[in-house]
């Protein structure tokens, strides 16, 4: 990954609903997520998943989207800003969608998160702008469906994350599995 990998924006929201609000900083808490965010917790916080089994571990503590997706969507006529699609952290310079499960991202001075999988886009995206969900999906030549709406992660080590913070990618030897929706 490029040494210029950076945090572009940080966002959170205390209640359910599409979109999160940009912040000057967010505090990540180990095995919990973003302090004050509706999706923070050791067990699943996503409403649909809670109905299935509220005791499952929360593999979606922190949601990241690459700013390059925002650029691509703008070219297609969409108006998307950081946090609009529900992400906590907007990045630039990290190819999030091609990381391996278990990859660690060091954010700023202290925070470390581990990538658990991709986000499966939902129809709520069309509430932001009609056609947005379809615009975030791409069928690759081999027939594989590429979900472009970012990656989910868990917090291994807490810390404060701010826009402009550096991102360092660490790929442990055991991180060989391709990402799948979580």
Describe the structure in brief.
Helix content is 13%, strand content 31%.
What does it look like?
This protein has one domain (6-170): M1 Pyruvate Kinase, Domain 3. It is 13% helix and 31% strand. It has 182 residues and is of the alpha+beta class. A hairpin with a 3-residue loop joins β7 and β8 (111-118). The strands form 3 sheets. The chain has an 8-stranded mixed β-sheet with strand order 2-1-6-5-11-8-7-13. It has a 3-stranded antiparallel β-sheet with strand order 4-3-12, with no helix packed on it. A two-stranded antiparallel ribbon has the order 9-10.
Q: Any key phrases for this structure?
A:
alpha+beta; 13% helix; 13 strands; eight-stranded mixed beta sheet; three-stranded antiparallel beta sheet; globular; 182 residues; M1 Pyruvate Kinase, Domain 3
* Architecture per CATH nomenclature, i.e. the level-2 architecture: Beta Barrel
End-to-end C-alpha gap? 23 Å
CATH superfamily: PK beta-barrel domain-like
Strand order, biggest sheet? 2-1-6-5-11-8-7-13
CATH C-level name: Mainly Beta
Tally of DSSP β-strands: 13
CATH fold call: M1 Pyruvate Kinase, Domain 3
Helix content bin: 10-25%
Low-confidence stretches: none
- Sheet-strand content, in percent, reads 25-35%
Number of helical runs? 4
Supply the helix-strand structural class: alpha+beta
- Gyration radius from CA atoms, angstroms: 15 Å
Q: Write down the overall geometry.
A: globular
Number of domains: 1
| Topology as a string of helices (H) and strands (E) | EEEEHEHEEEHHEEEEE
Mean pLDDT metric: 95
Give the biggest beta sheet.
Answer: 8 strands, mixed
């Amino acid at each position: 990954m490029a040494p210029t990998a950076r945090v572009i924006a940080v966002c959170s929201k205390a209640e359910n609903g599409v979109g999160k609000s940009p912040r000057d900083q967010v505090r990540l808490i180990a095995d919990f997520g973003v302090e004050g965010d509706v999706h923070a917790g050791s067990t699943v916080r996503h409403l649909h998943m809670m109905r299935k089994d509220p005791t499952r571990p929360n593999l979606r503590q922190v949601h990241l989207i690459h700013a390059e997706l925002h650029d691509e969507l703008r070219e297609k006529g969409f108006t998307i800003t950081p946090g609009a699609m529900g992400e906590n952290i907007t990045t630039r310079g990290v190819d999030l969608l091609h990381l391996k499960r278990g990859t660690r991202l060091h954010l700023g001075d202290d925070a470390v998160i581990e990538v658990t999988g991709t986000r499966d886009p939902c129809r709520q995206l069309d509430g932001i702008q009609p056609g947005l969900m379809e615009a975030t999906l791409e069928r690759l030549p081999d027939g594989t469906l590429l979900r472009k709406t970012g990656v989910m992660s868990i917090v291994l080590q807490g810390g404060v994350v701010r826009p402009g913070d550096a991102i360092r990618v660490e790929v442990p030897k055991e991180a060989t599995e391709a990402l799948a929706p979580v």
